[in-house]
Write a structure and sequence with these properties.
By secondary structure, this protein is α+β, with helices and mostly antiparallel strands. The protein folds into two domains: about 5-80, OB fold (Dihydrolipoamide Acetyltransferase, E2P) (Beta Barrel), CATH 2.40.50; about 85-240, de novo design (two linked rop proteins) (Up-down Bundle), CATH 1.20.1440. The chain contains nine helices and eight strands. Strands 5-3-2-1-4-6 form a six-stranded mixed sheet. The chain has a two-stranded antiparallel ribbon with strand order 7-8. β1 and β2 form a beta hairpin. α4 runs parallel beside α8 (about 215-230). About 40% of the residues are buried. It binds zinc ion.
């Protein structure tokens, strides 16, 4: 009774008139959903705390085995307002949250996923491409589809020239032609490797040293989608914005 947890709002869907079903990745209970009564009306005190991509404190009555709960209160702790002032940033936040929704299991506590998403959302404003790449690399490790970035994934040679999404990592010039590889620049290879090796604790150093681009995000997304079979609405939206 009277349980309280911090959580990141992944999505917020109209449920009945003025009510919403709010999907939240919580610190203590994993991904759960709240039925938030009246939250779509302007006067609702809980509305700010149920806004997508914010971090809020939720109070409710937890029951073992359940994953949907009536919401008592939601108090916003981190509005991440900058995300809502820039359509590009907002769409990247949508991508990070949709990915988190897909890889998390309802009601299973995943504190590392929570921390990775929290970091990624907080760093988006500073460098959207670097933040996305670090999150995607973390996610590749989390779901067990880590790319090979220390040698050619086919023959083991340490001089590499390209990335093969299908084979699962770097390929050398000898293996490149039968590995359905992408045409890569040296920067593409460096960024792909650096993101795979680094974490959010290295963010500031990486930001000073490298200029990540949308192309880096695209390569990491192609890799993740190919090896997991996931389909994402937010990624389709980003494509239409960026092209
Ligand atoms: Zn090779």
């Amino acid at each position: 009774m009277n349980d309280v947890t911090e959580g990141i709002v992944l999505s917020n869907m109209e449920y009945r008139e003025k009510d919403a079903l709010v999907s939240v990745l919580t610190k203590d209970f994993g991904r759960i959903a709240f039925v938030a009564k009246g939250v779509l009306s302007i006067q609702s005190k809980n509305a700010p705390g149920c806004t997508p991509y914010t971090t809020s404190e939720f109070s409710f009555d937890y029951k073992e085995g359940k994953t949907v709960f009536p919401l008592k209160t939601a108090k916003m702790n981190n509005s991440r307002r900058a995300l809502r002032e820039d359509l590009d940033l907002l769409s990247f936040a949508g991508l990070l949250c949709e990915l988190s929704e897909k890889v998390s299991e309802q009601g299973i506590k995943e504190i590392e996923l929570y921390e990775a998403l929290d970091n990624a959302l907080n760093f988006l404003k500073q460098d959207r491409y670097l933040s996305c790449c670090l999150f995607l690399a973390w996610l590749q490790r989390f779901v067990g589809v880590e790319p090979v970035v220390d040698q050619c994934v086919i023959c083991g040679k340490t001089t590499v020239s390209s990335i093969s999404i299908k084979e699962g990592g770097f390929v050398c010039s000898g293996c490149q032609h039968h590995a359905a590889s992408k045409n890569c620049t040296l920067d593409d290879l460096i960024h792909f490797r650096v993101a795979s090796k680094a974490g959010f604790e290295h963010f500031d150093i990486l930001q000073k040293k490298y200029v990540f681009s949308f192309n880096d995000v695209r390569i990491m997304m192609d890799f993740l989608l190919h090896h997991t079979g996931m389909r994402l609405h937010s990624w389709t939206l980003i494509h239409s914005l960026m092209d």
